[in-house]
Design brief:
The complex is a heterodimer. By secondary structure, chain A is an all-alpha fold. Chain A contains 5 helices and no strands. In chain A, helix 1 packs antiparallel against helix 2 and helix 2 runs antiparallel to helix 3. The C terminus of chain B is likely disordered. The two termini of chain B are 51 Å apart. By secondary structure, chain B is mostly helical. In chain B, helix 3 runs antiparallel to helix 10. The chains are: A mainly alpha, B mainly alpha.
Chain lengths: 151, 952
């Protein structure tokens, strides 16, 4: 067992590094491309981990090299198609984001940012019931309850 | 017994469904099963234990044990009897037809029946939580719009499930210590040791919360927002008894263990006295009764947790008596509220004259509660006093019991006074009979059973005899003059005094001394949980996706990374020095590998979207080459086609986006962090790859598949694995593809408005010269190029000419896949290429002409065909032999062609083919066509046909 060739190891390492780097960017297209790079890296990794290169796994056509392990190949084959489907899904997401928001950038979650910025003290209110989301605004809360009751 | 529990489940669904229109009939029909249960239990009284078991997974020790003994019979009588009464009452109490309410009540009765019959700790736990869930539904279901109801239901759920989980932990500790979860075995040989004792404490906590013992009682008074039948049944007679029942069940084995007796008796006494004091201060009739229940449950805890025979006799008798007096009291409070419209003491007057039957029944119930002879409550109290009349530490308990009895007398009198006293306003006596009878029946039973103490003794004696202590005592109405009757008289006299002093003012005077308010405690706990969540969220949830990914990446680096390094230094791990440093196995790998590396880095750094996409494609094609070099022609074929399709899709989308990426605005420190994490991950992957390859010890399974393929007569091993050996996996994977396609359709097409076509304008087809599929002009395009620009006549003509040839080639690949490179995946992709070729120069109209079927049909049809093949293998494979997706070879000899062998896996492959084709067409018709149409919208507003064509 000698292990895979250095250039292949390097190639999958670069694919993973570049893919993850692009995944951490804010442009959705970069993210999609990063995802595809990661997919390539993973497919290559799977195949390399499966064993050394060999002759194609077709019976009756053996060459002087031993047959390559067919199982990782079968896995990678389905992985390729699934990556294709998921990438198309991501592209549709990017498209949708562009259509709705007018940009293809990942923005920060507004609610999370708000909580992040809030002061702790605000959370400790009076003795009111903690589950009663309407406690702060009496009038609004009652109106809310009525509408819910009516529905 | 299993049948009985199942019958409840059926009845809970069937009765409301069948009789929902007739509320009274429905309620009475629902009451039949609980009544039958009670009768059955009564006939078993004094008999031998009955056991049943249902083996589920014996290897895992999952056996559903049931056992009916004396204690279960007492509980079954309560659950069934009070259940039947409460259900009948509910038919008259509710104005409308409460199907959910009735069904849940029946389901609750079933869960409670299962709980008291279970002979396995885990089975008991499941039924325990089922009762909690029923309680949640029943509290919250009538007026879910009221905040108070929602809060009360949530509180009951949170309190009992939280401590239910604590109890489960206790069960596991006990079960592990004993080596069995069967309760009867556990009681026969009780486990000892610290683990078992800790387990017992946890179990007790669960029981205390369920039985609303102080200080875990706050949920019970809050739960009084529930309708009266629910309060009477769940929160007085049945569910809250579960904790008491559990204590009684475990007492014979554990009463002398460690903390058991101090804990149970201490908590019980506190609840008995404090509950009574608080009850005396309530204005709301149901709140008064609720605190009375807390108090009485404390009394039951004291009796049933003590572990002596006399106390157990008293406890089981009181268990029965409490159900028979507390349920009618609640029901009577319900009648009063129903008739008067309020249950606040200060607003009630003269109800005794308006509801004489109810008033008499309630008085009888109170008499049983305070222990007046000849009621059953008196019999129980006599025994209780006798049980602790020994001096020593028991004297303290005895004093507590007498004090509790005095308080009970006081708040019982207060209840009667509040509910029924006062002069009448001249209204005629008009008891609602449908409700008054259910009040009277249990109250009368409490009266009658006082005279039938002999049969009661026979019923409960088998349980009490399992406990030690003085053996002579028998339940009886008259034991002669002595200490017990003297103390009873004292308690009643003191209670009357208390009532006269404190119990007659409405609203009650405020407490002179502060009472620890466990409601505030509960609120505080909930709020601190929320504040804690807020604080954690505030720190961790920055709202920035890159930050989250960075955290994930760092975690991957730290956790599996350090594990990898630790594993490498371990003895017996592969020596990395074994790795033979070699640049390449094959010179061509060097070239391809370098292309991958260079293109990958360049794609990362690219500033234009299109360059990034093209560089990305470069990586993809080089990888395809690497697949060939690795000896994987199938992979290479599929990969190259996918790569081309992806590139086209990317370009389709990029066309609508700006040319350049937005400028990077990231701080240098963030850039460094990103780079570090990415490079670290790359290095980790490289190291992992080397270690993984060198760690191989066992022969790979792949070659085994080659032998299997030879036996099956398939030469292409990869294809054989995909469609035969691991076909179920493939089925799962193509399902993922189908789901992703649906997602694409939904994302692109949802929420789009249909622009009404301006009147007078011709349908779209005329404008570009040719209806879709009309084929009037051979070789000419019927639409515009998908990417815009001038019409591409040569390309369009070439596409039309090549299309059929490509389709034929794809069918060849599909069939050849059995023996040569090919198969459903790649064949589907190649077929899709034919349509892409038509689409690119001709646009969506040309696509519609080329493919009359919607892509959704292909997706569904492909998936359906694949599943049908599997099911067919199941059906036709022969009995016992028919496996899902089992491949058979069909022989046929059509004329001319000669002998033809068709493996059934080919049909599976056809399904894959159709599905993959459907995926690509989905992408073209949605991502492609919708972008396409946005171009069109600028000049010609027509979109109806596209939107329709693309909808699955």
């Amino acid at each position: 067992m000698t292990g895979p060739a250095l250039v292949l190891i390097l190639a999958s390492a670069v694919l993973f590094a570049a893919g993850f780097n692009m995944l951490m960017q804010r442009s959705l297209v970069r993210i999609v491309i990063g995802f595809m790079l990661l997919g390539h890296g993973a497919n290559l990794l799977l195949l390399l981990a499966g064993g050394a290169a060999g002759s194609p796994p077709l019976l009756g056509r053996e060459s002087e090299r031993p047959m390559a392990d067919p199982l990782p190949q079968a896995m990678v084959l389905t992985a390729i198609v699934i990556t294709f489907g998921v990438t198309a899904f991501l592209l549709a997401l990017a498209f949708r984001s562009r259509m709705l928001l007018g940009e293809d950038e990942v923005r920060d979650d507004v609610e999370d940012r708000r909580i992040h910025a809030e002061r702790l003290a605000e959370a400790w209110g009076d003795d009111a019931d903690p589950f009663d989301e309407d406690a702060d605004q009496e009038g609004a809360g009652r109106g809310d309850g009525e509408t819910r009751g009516g529905a | 017994m299993v049948t009985l529990v199942l019958a409840y489940a059926v009845a809970a669904v069937a009765v409301p469904w069948a009789l929902g229109r007739h509320r009274r009939l429905m309620a009475c029909a629902a009451a039949v099963l609980p009544a039958a249960t009670a009768v059955w239990a009564a006939t078993r009284a004094g008999g031998d234990d009955l056991t049943a078991e249902l083996v589920w997974a014996a290897d895992l020790g999952l056996v559903l044990d049931f056992r009916m003994d004396a204690l279960s019979i007492v509980m079954l009588l309560l659950v069934g009897g009070v259940g039947a009464v409460a259900l009948c009452y509910a038919g008259w109490y509710f104005e409308g037809s409460e199907r959910l309410m009735i069904g849940t009540l029946v389901a609750f009765a079933g869960a409670m029946t299962g709980l008291v019959l279970a002979d396995n700790l885990l089975v008991l736990y499941v039924f325990w939580e089922l009762t909690t869930l029923s309680s949640f539904i029943l509290i919250g279901t009538t007026r879910p719009e009221r905040a108070e109801d929602r809060r009360a239901a949530t509180q009951a759920l949170l309190m009992t499930t939280a401590f239910g989980l604590v109890m489960l932990a206790g069960f596991v500790l006990l079960g592990q210590a004993a080596g069995t979860y069967r309760i009867s075995a556990l009681l026969a040989e009780p486990p000892g040791g610290a683990a078992a004792e800790a387990g017992l404490v946890l179990v007790l906590l669960g029981a205390f919360a369920k039985s609303a013992q102080m200080p875990l009682h706050a949920w019970l008074p809050a739960a009084m927002v529930a309708p009266t039948p629910v309060s009477a049944y769940l929160h007085a007679a049945a569910m809250v008894k579960a904790g008491v029942y559990l204590v009684a069940r475990l007492t014979p084995a554990f009463a002398d263990t460690g903390l058991w007796r101090p804990a149970v008796i201490g908590v019980g006494l506190v609840s008995l006295i404090a509950g009574g004091v608080v009850a005396l201060r309530q204005d709301d009739l149901k709140a008064l009764l609720a605190y009375g229940t807390v108090s009485q449950l404390g009394f039951l805890m004291v009796l049933l947790g003590n572990g002596t025979r006399t106390a157990a006799l008293a406890g089981t008798a009181l268990l029965l008596a409490h159900g028979l007096f507390k349920a009618p009291l609640f029901l009577a409070a319900g009648v009063v509220e129903h008739e008067a419209g309020t249950r606040r003491a200060g607003e009630l007057s003269g109800m005794g004259r308006r509801l004489p039957v109810t008033a008499v029944a309630a008085t009888a119930a109170v008499a049983s509660m305070i222990g007046l002879p000849p009621f059953l409550g008196f019999v129980a109290k006599e025994a209780a006093v006798k049980a602790f009349a020994h001096g020593g530490m028991d004297a303290v308990v005895l004093a507590g019991v007498v004090a509790g009895a005095a308080l009970t007398t006081a708040y019982g009198a207060r209840f009667l006074h509040a509910a029924f006293a006062g002069g009448g306003d001249g209204a005629r006596a008009a008891d609602p009979w449908g409700m008054a009878v259910p009040v009277a029946v249990p109250a009368a039973a409490g009266f009658a059973l006082g005279f039938l103490s002999g049969p009661v003794q026979t019923m409960v004696a088998p349980y009490a005899n399992t406990l030690g202590g003085d053996t002579g005592y028998e339940l009886a109405l008259w034991h002669g003059l002595g200490l017990p009757i003297a103390l009873s008289a004292l308690a009643i006299a003191a209670g009357a005094g208390l009532f006269l002093l404190f119990g007659r003012s409405y609203p009650a005077e405020p407490m002179r001394w502060p009472v620890p308010d466990s409601q505030r405690g509960y609120n505080g706990v909930v709020r601190s949980v929320l504040v804690g969540a807020h604080a954690v969220t505030k720190r961790l949830q920055a709202g920035s996706l890159p930050v989250y990914l960075g955290v994930i990446g760092t975690t991957v680096l730290v956790v599996p990374g350090s594990a990898l390094i630790a594993g490498m230094t371990d003895k017996g791990s592969p020596d990395v020095a074994d790795y033979v440093l070699h640049g390449w196995d094959d010179p061509v790998q060097t070239v391809l590998g370098l292309i991958v590396i260079v293109c990958g880095i360049a794609a990362m750094l690219a500033r234009r979207r299109l360059s990034a996409a093209l560089l990305m494609a470069g990586v993809g094609y080089a990888i395809g080459g690497l697949f060939v070099a690795q000896g994987a022609p199938d992979l290479a074929l599929t990969h190259l086609v996918v790569e081309t399709l992806l590139l086209i899709t990317l370009v389709l989308v990029l066309r609508r986006l700006p040319e350049r990426f937005p400028p990077r605005r990231r701080k240098p420190s963030a850039r460094v962090a990103t780079a570090l994490i990415s490079v670290g991950l790359g290095a980790l992957i490289a190291m992992f790859l080397v270690v993984a390859v060198l760690s191989r010890r066992i022969r790979p399974t792949g070659p085994g598949y080659a032998e299997l393929a030879a036996k099956e007569g398939a030469d292409n091993v990869v294809n054989m694995i995909l469609v035969e050996a691991r076909a179920l996996d493939t089925l799962g994977e193509i399902t993922v593809v189908a789901v992703a396609s649906m997602g694409v359709i939904g994302l692109v097409l949802s929420g789009r408005r249909r622009v009404p076509r301006p009147p007078g304008e011709e349908p779209a087809g005329g404008e570009a010269g040719g209806e879709p599929g009309g084929g009037r002009s051979w070789l000419a395009t019927s639409g515009r190029p998908a990417l815009g620009g001038a019409p591409m006549v040569p390309a369009a003509a070439a596409a039309r000419l090549l299309g059929p040839a490509i389709l034929v080639f794809s069918v060849y690949l599909l069939i050849a896949g059995h023996n040569r490179p090919g198969g459903g995946f790649v064949a589907g992709l190649v077929a899709a290429m034919a349509y892409v070729l038509r689409y690119l120069p001709g646009g969506r109209r040309e696509l519609a002409a080329a493919m009359p079927v919607r892509p959704g049909v292909l997706l569904g049809g492909g998936l359906g065909l694949a599943v049908a093949t599997g099911v067919a293998g199941w059906t036709f494979g022969g009995a016992g032999d028919g496996a899902f997706l089992k491949s058979e070879v069909l022989h046929a000899a059509p004329p001319v062609i000669g002998d033809v062998k068709v493996p059934t896996s080919l049909f599976f492959d056809v399904g894959v083919y159709l599905l993959v084709l459907g995926l690509v067409l989905t992408i073209l018709t949605t991502l492609g066509a919708s972008l396409d149409e946005n171009v069109l919208e600028e000049d010609v507003p027509d979109e109806n046909d596209t939107a329709e064509g693309a909808r699955p």
